[in-house]
């Protein structure tokens, strides 16, 4: 009933951790599909040697993480597809919990769990005070709670992922685009139990980003017919947070590119976000501490 798709690109130092966590599940995946996206290291060879007969390895030329995810989703034979980045790992009861949520809400097509954010050995739960819930308006819940979903903490009906594939050739915002498209059409069930470890210090994770405009922002602002009121709320909060947050982190080119888009498409948003280029990091982080998580 459940397939797991893991995109792999130059992650030989971490892929064993991810695969081992998938194989340890108290409820087994029907299949584990690893899509090697033209890796230049020995990650694919490691998979072939250590996990022969336990996982399905798909090889393709390097086309990016979105293409790798899409390829795995197309290869999957289960009704539901779970995603896991090669950097990350699952707690042993991840799939058992997803299946319990599915049993309680058989009409739902999207299931997520909370997660830990890990830097070195320090792991902190993203929503330690949260609760399990079902929402028919997941876009609005997502606008105020980024811990609602992550590319390693979601299990979605395969047909939904085929309906809204990951945009290929995109390095930033490709996952948020898919979540917003899916959330606009389907309800979501979320467990507050942190059952995924997101490793922020893993090799290559930060190198995947560039200073271009996030795809989800450019797509929806360029396609107003797909941009519902709820999506607008999400985009507004997301753009403001990212402009001030990335400015504080020194990514001025990213902020400038985003501001140029806002100036053309959402002038009022631009007025609110433009001071981000001159606000000092000290002021931003002080405000963040008072107002809560970015």
From TrEMBL:
GO function terms (MF aspect): transferase activity
Keyword Coiled coil: no
Pfam families to which the protein is assigned, alphabetical: Glycos_transf_2
Glycosyltransferase 2-like domain mapped to chain residues: 3-97
Official protein name in the record: Glycosyltransferase family 2 protein
Keywords for the protein's UniProt record, in alphabetical order: Transferase
Keyword Transferase attributed: yes
Signal peptide: none
Matching CDD domains: Glyco_tranf_GTA_type
